[in-house]
Structure formats: structure tokens, C-alpha cells
Amino acid sequence: MRAVRFGVFAECLLTGVWIALASLPLVTLPAALAAGSAHLRRHLAHEPGGLREFATDVRAAARHGGLLAGLTGWAALALVWADIAVVRAGGLPGGAFAGAVGVLALLALSVAGLRAAVAWHPGAPWRPLLTSATRRTVRDPAGSLALVCGFAVIAASMWFSPPLAAPALGILTAAALAVEQRADA
Prior knowledge:
This protein is mostly helical. It has one domain (2-184). The protein contains seven helices and no strands. The chain has helices at 2-22, 29-44, 51-89, 95-119, 126-139, 141-160, 165-184. Helix 1 crosses helix 7 and helix 2 (29-44) crosses helix 4 (95-119). It starts with a helix and ends with a helix. 33% of the residues are buried.
């Protein structure tokens, strides 16, 4: 039994490395997360799958709106970054509050994006996935907070040793799968 659990953990780490490599162009991060979650679902269902199926899923997720989702995410990050720069410059009345709201909004959007990626399946368009994931993000605050903690683990891993962030992506993806399954039950 321990070997099975360790095998799942090892698969999560490997999937994280695949996600990191597939998301090097940055805008492919949602597609890579979607492909990683599809791979982990296949692994947990004892279905065959490997790097070739992962690559096929990345291409399919990117073609069906994953690239647009990635661009939107980076645009949101740029807006929050600019908001924080204005707040730090002191040029905005109530700036600390506006900065905090911006950061919280970015975290909520990140959680919704991760939940949408986990819900993706081949052929699914991203817009309905994102709409549904946004609702789940608001209606399941405990699950959303767990995913925010997962983001903190990735940040801490990256701070401690940057190469650790890659396998941590697989663990975050597995955590997002668990959060979504818990919400469905």
C-alpha cells in the first residue's frame, strides 16, 4: 500500500516537472496545468498515459482557449503589479486598501484559473470552465484557501531552491484535483 501512495507522489512530482517545462513560454501555463491534471486523473484511474499523451493534451488545451487564458492571466498580473507600484509611490488616496484588494483579486483569479484547468477535458472551451470555476472559488472558500496555501508552498519552494518549484507544481495540481473532488462530493 505504501508503494502505491509513493508512486502517486512520484507521479505528482514528475507531472510538476512536465508542467514547468510546458509552461516555459509563460502563456501556456493554463494549458500545461490542464494537461497535468488530465495526466494525474488518468494515472489515478489506472489508465495508460505518459509524456506523449501529456503533450497532446497541452496542444489541445492551448488550441481551445488556453493561450488566451494565459495571456489574460499575465495581463491581470501586470495590472496588479502596476497597482502596487502606484500604491508604493503614495500617489493614491486609500492606496493600501486598493493594493490589498488588487492582491486579493489576483489570488482569487489565480485560484479560479487553477480550478478551471483542473476541470478541463479534451475539447472543452475555456470560457465556460472559467465561469464555473469562478463560482466554485467563491462558493468553496475552504478549498480556495487550500489552493492559496498551495501557491504559498510553491513560492516558499522557489525561495528556498528555485528547482523545487517545478515538482511543487505537480503537488499543487494534485491538491487542486482533491479540492475539486471534495467539492463535488
